[in-house]
Design brief:
By secondary structure, the protein is of the alpha+beta class. It is built from seven helices and six strands; from the N terminus they run ββββααααββααα. The chain binds zinc ion. It comes from Undibacterium danionis.
Length: about 210
């Protein structure tokens, strides 16, 4: 069972500690260091907390993983990364899937395929992209789900519960509920991102429909 752990990012708290074992299989041999992008920060602290590193004002999470599980977690986290390029790519995947569904099940259907020309790339990308995003959600062993540096917290999803427990025990203070207060829903970025995605998807579909009519 995956575990979701809230972590406080506060320079007054002890630095983050990472278990010296693979988050997937638990092995302690041949471990390598993996970095996963957390997000951009506006003000860089002079001494970042343990297990965090900063390059060009982008903050990364650094933890140990075995070579057998490094590749899939790296690929999965890249697909789910919170960077402008990956946000755009995922948006294209979602729009493409909506278009693919419209073409397969919509009123004007497959007859429109030849007229679409280069636009056909979109539904194809969607049909490949969305399954790979679903794969990524299942395959990643350790993934930062949310990162809010200004309010001082992040959320990490661990695929394996025993590893999550180890992590909590090593970071009792930073993961305690006293230090990781929840934000009200309207202050969460995700709510507004979802709303924006919906509006943009609907606008794209209308635009696409108007193209098909000519
Ligand atoms: Zn492993």
């Amino acid at each position: 069972m995956p575990q979701i752990v809230r972590v406080a990012l506060d320079s007054n708290l002890p630095p983050l500690q990472w278990p010296a074992c693979c988050p997937e299989c638990g092995t302690t041999k041949m471990l390598e260091k993996m970095t996963t992008r957390l997000g951009r920060v506006k003000s860089v602290p002079s001494t970042p907390a343990g297990g965090l590193s900063i390059k060009n004002e982008v903050m990364y999470l650094t933890y140990f993983i075995c070579p057998d599980h490094a590749a899939e977690t790296r690929w999965a986290n890249r697909l789910l990364e919170k960077s402008p390029v990956m946000y755009l790519l995922r948006f294209i995947f979602y729009v493409g899937t909506i278009l693919a569904l419209a073409l397969l099940f919509g009123p004007r259907r497959l007859a429109n395929f030849p007229e679409l020309g280069a636009l056909l790339v979109l539904p194809v990308l969607g049909l490949v992209g969305v399954p790979s995003l679903i794969w990524a959600h299942m395959a990643t062993s350790l993934r930062p789900m949310h990162f809010d540096f200004e309010h001082g917290w992040m959320i990490i999803r661990f695929r394996q519960a025993p590893y999550a427990t180890k992590f909590r025990v090593m970071n009792l203070e930073t993961t305690s509920s006293v230090n990781t207060e929840e934000l009200p829903w309207f202050k969460r970025k995700l709510v507004w991102q979802l709303a924006l995605m919906t509006v943009l998807s609907v606008a794209m579909i209308y635009y696409f429909e108007s193209l098909v009519q000519f």
